[in-house]
Write a structure and sequence with these properties.
Elements lengths: L4 E4 L17 H14 L3 E4 L1 E2 L6 E2 L2 H12 L5 E4 L9 H11 L3 E5 L3 E2 L17 H7 L4 E2 L3 H14 L2 E6 L3 H11 L7 E7 L9 H15 L4 E7 L4 H10 L3 E4 L6 E3 L2 E2 L3 H14 L7 H8 L13
Parallel strand pairs: 1-2, 1-12, 2-5, 5-6, 6-9, 9-10, 10-11, 11-12
Antiparallel strand pairs: 3-4, 7-8, 13-14
The structure holds (5S)-5-amino-3-OXO-hexanoic acid (KMH) and zinc ion (ZN).
Length: about 300
């Protein structure tokens, strides 16, 4: 099976003052995503930010501008976040689905402490007033994804023909997914994104990735699981290598890691895509094109994005 490389280009964790290369205006997000696609990413995962100060936002107009910008320049499938930020309400998080009708959207498979307050210590002279309080607030926040709300997201995705990318941060979330499949709230085959190294979730170690992959296969059956993996920070490439060796797909990008090596800030997500593509090539693995990724994931086609569903 060809391997799908995903580039998660912005996210809602990092703040602009952490890197001069951090994309937060719609134009910068589009440029980073298109560059990542040209480097080999078949899927790009997007969040929106306020172009004035980089604050995470669920503003549909910005999402629409980003999607139009990416789609007009490359064929990558777009995965829209429903995770938004730890500070958003459920309504803010689900709104993009009905209006943007994306091919893919993240669906967070359980609640967890999603803490990145320790990043505040790195900000000596922040550009924007909101950055430090935003980071510090995550020490006392739960990223809430109750079963009832997961069902709301899942129902919305069925209505919009959107494939769920099930974000898994910890082993118990695999059982959450199994339960939701058993009660008919989720359909198989499921597409899981194992997200390691978040403070509050599973640490980014090879043995934890192996455990998650095996747990998913045992819970749902090998034929019912397509999976990808990513890791926060410096574990990004090592976990990507383990994921390739285990037969999986890989996510990289500035959402998860601002660096390309020890002390070296990545200029864009494309640098990280290029690194994992080179590694895959050395392993004689083939990288999926956007068309092949749509086939593997059963996506509806980019012509049905931002369009009323028939
Ligand atoms: N920003 C995190 C709280 C997703 O895109 O759904 C959630 C996140 C995962 O980024
Ligand atoms: Zn995200």
């Amino acid at each position: 099976m060809k391997r799908i490389i995903t580039a998660a280009v912005t996210g809602a964790t990092h703040v602009p003052s952490l890197s001069p290369h951090f994309p937060f205006t719609p134009e910068q997000i589009v440029e980073d995503a298109v560059g990542a696609a040209k480097a080999g990413a078949a899927v790009v995962h997007i969040h929106a930010r306020d172009p004035m100060d980089g604050h995470p936002t669920s503003d549909i107009r910005l999402f629409h501008q980003i999607i139009e910008g990416i789609s007009s320049q490359c064929d990558a499938a777009i995965c829209v976040t429903t995770g938004g930020s730890t500070a958003m309400t459920i309504d803010e998080r689900v709104a993009p689905l009905h209006i943007l009708t994306p091919e893919l959207a993240s669906l967070n498979s359980g609640s967890l402490n999603f803490a990145f307050h320790q990043l505040a210590d790195k900000l000596k002279d922040p550009r924007f007033d909101w950055e430090v309080p935003y980071l510090q607030a995550t020490e006392n926040l739960v990223f809430s994804n109750t079963f009832r709300n997961i069902k709301i997201f899942a129902q919305a995705m069925r209505e919009t023909g959107t494939k769920a990318e099930l974000e898994v941060y910890d082993a118990g979330m695999i059982n959450n997914i199994k339960h939701l499949v058993d009660v008919g709230a989720l359909e198989t085959p499921v597409y899981m994104q194992f997200v390691l190294g978040i403070l509050g979730g599973m640490p980014a170690t090879p043995e934890n990735l192996v455990f998650l992959v095996e747990s998913a296969r045992k819970a749902l059956g090998d034929e019912n699981v397509v999976w990808s993996c990513c890791a926060a920070g410096k574990a990004q490439l090592p976990i990507g290598c383990v994921g390739l060796a285990l037969g999986g797909n890989v996510r990289v990008g500035l959402e998860d890691n601002l660096y390309i090596g020890p002390g070296r800030l990545a200029r864009n997500s494309a640098e990280q895509v290029g690194a994992i593509v080179r590694i895959a090539t050395e392993l004689s693995l083939e990288i999926a094109t956007p068309a092949e990724a749509r086939e593997i994931l059963g996506l509806k086609g980019k012509d049905k994005v931002c369009a009323p569903q028939s």
